[in-house]
Write a structure and sequence with these properties.
CATH architecture of the largest domain: 3-Layer(aba) Sandwich
Number of strands: 6
Strand content: 5-15%
Shape: globular
């Protein structure tokens, strides 16, 4: 990762319309964003595929009501957990939110770790084949018989570039990649490499990355324990009462929620729930870091640097002038 890349206008030659603060889960992005908002007239645009769901508050580390009163947040609580939300829709919604924030004379700061959403925004999104319910049902049935690791191995044979980015149990993304390949005869990675619409304004993007991986894992564990103590299991129980949920929904497949779902279904005990959730979250962080390394325009910041908010606030203030 470097300060500027070929895909986007260089921040030292084009005034950015918005700023991005990316990073792996539990790296401290939200805390830093709120600290920056104490120094700058910021509004925060969420780049989080879990925070779009209403009622999924604890497991997505959604900002509290008090934090949202203090600093305006956007692209949170958009749909019910029974719905779906695409990277293409995120791109449209994020552009609209950024333009509205700019019209109010304020600064848009995009914050989150859903790298597919960031890539869709910054680099455009290819016109992928539409979802095919019959084909998805066929893939789901095959996964039921053989398991998702087997389908991941099939994907690796036809689209190794995509398979390398996905965990063997990343059911949602494996299914979509196989669906695209079977529907079109083309790999999903070939669509992502195709020319697509450029962003109509410049971004200046940073990634908050802990220098010490063990420290990040400790943060992940401490945060998940806080979620359990704060009522994550009860939150999922309430969502199951409120909505017609099933294990195949994107909302239920979110890290943390998927493991609680298995616990509530009696698949394992509470200790195994914690172990599985921590392992899945560490895998997520690893995938996020892999994504970040593929984005040359994103500048890396040490998540543990002292007084980080002071230096970054100065950078943003100067760039926004």
């Amino acid at each position: 990762m470097s300060p500027a890349g070929a895909e986007l206008p260089a921040p030292d030659t084009v005034k950015p319309a918005a700023f991005c603060l990316l990073g792996p889960t539990a790296s401290g992005k939200s805390r830093l964003a709120l600290q920056l908002a104490e120094r700058l007239p910021l509004e925060i645009v969420s780049v989080d595929s879990g925070q779009v769901y209403r009622g999924m508050d604890i497991g997505t580390a959604k900002p509290s009501a008090e934090e949202r009163r203090r600093v305006p947040h956007h692209l949170i609580d958009l749909i019910d957990p029974t719905g779906s939300y695409s990277a293409g829709r995120f791109r449209d919604d994020a552009i609209a939110a950024i333009e509205a924030i700019r019209a109010r004379g304020r600064i848009a700061l995009l914050v989150g770790g859903t790298m597919l959403y960031y890539r869709a925004l910054a680099h455009g999104i290819a016109a992928l084949p539409a979802a095919d319910p019959a084909l998805r049902a066929e893939i789901d049935e095959q996964a039921r018989r053989e398991g998702w690791p087997s389908l991941h191995a099939q994907l690796a044979r036809v689209d190794p570039a995509t398979a390398r980015r996905l965990a063997p149990n990343d059911a949602q993304r494996i299914e979509r990649a196989l669906e695209v390949y079977r529907a079109s005869g083309r790999t999903i990675s070939s669509f992502h490499c195709a020319p697509s619409a450029r962003l109509p304004f410049a971004l200046l993007s940073f990634a908050l990355v802990p220098a010490n991986r063990a420290r990040l894992h400790a943060r992940i564990a401490a945060r998940f324990d806080r979620m359990l103590a704060g009522g994550l299991i009860e939150e999922v129980q309430e969502l199951r009462r409120q909505y017609a949920l099933h294990a195949g929904l994107p909302s239920v497949r979110c890290v943390g929620y998927r493991q609680v779902w298995g616990y509530l279904e009696g698949a394992y005990d509470r200790a195994a729930l914690r172990d599985k959730a921590l392992a899945a979250t560490r895998q997520l962080a690893k995938r996020q870091l892999t994504w970040l390394r593929s984005l040359p325009e994103v500048e890396t910041l040490d998540a543990d640097a002292p007084a980080l908010e002071i230096g970054l606030a100065a950078r943003l203030r100067a760039a926004a002038r």
